[in-house]
Amino acid sequence: MKVKVLCSWCGKEIYRFPSQLAVSKHSFCSKECTRNFRQKATNPDGYTKHEHLSKYNREHNAFRMTDEVKAKLSLVRFGSGEGKAYPKLHGRHVHRTVAERVLGRKLKPGEIVHHKDGNKQNFSPENLEVLPSQSEHAKLHMAKRGDAI
Q1: Can you tell me the distance from the alpha carbon of 9 to that of 24, in angstroms, rounded to the nearest whole number?
Q2: Distance CA 87, CA 117 (A)
Q3: How far is CA 87 from the centre of its chain?
Q4: Where are the alpha helices (DSSP H) in the chain?
Q5: Are 123 and 98 spatial neighbours (Cβ–Cβ below 8 Å)?
Q6: Residue 89 contacts residue 97 (beta carbons within 8 Å)
């Protein structure tokens, strides 16, 4: 048997099963009332601020994702794919990192790193060439195929 209760946001009469009332201390007549109740902009006094989870994790799990752990995980996964994608190290493509070290600077926006031998897994400095744009990169590939512009 349903029980008559009031919406926690607008005060409208609604009916809920007792089991529904046991789950939460608030009842709402609509998703809009639920959203308004939980938003800081519409309910600054009732809004519950939760600390950001990243901050919480850094404080309580400081030992989990250290640089050493990241490096270890990276080495374990390194080369485990099918070789169809560019390998990454700490979230950056290895060939771009190697090219930056050779150049002695960060790559500029739009600069492309080309693999001379076509092997995405070969990121030796001799195999990499930095091109100024994607259009130059496409021209290079067309010239190699014999479709020169």
Answers
A1: 14
A2: 16
A3: 17
A4: 18-23, 31-38, 53-60, 67-77, 94-103, 134-145
A5: yes
A6: yes
Taking the alpha carbons of 43, 49, 50, 54 in that order, is the dihedral positive or negative?
positive
Residue-level pLDDT, tens digit, the chain, 149 residues: 899 999 999 999 999 999 888 888 899 999 999 999 988 888 888 766 666 666 777 777 777 777 888 788 877 877 677 767 787 777 788 999 999 999 999 999 999 999 998 888 888 999 999 999 999 999 999 998 876 55
Q: Which amino acid is at 76?
A: V
Identify residue 145 by its one-letter amino acid code.
R
Amino acid at 133: S
Record the tokens describing residue 33, joined without a space. Answer: 């009332």
The C-alpha torsion from 59 through 61 and 67 to 71, rounded to 10°, is: -160
β-pairing verdict for 13-16 and 3-6 = antiparallel
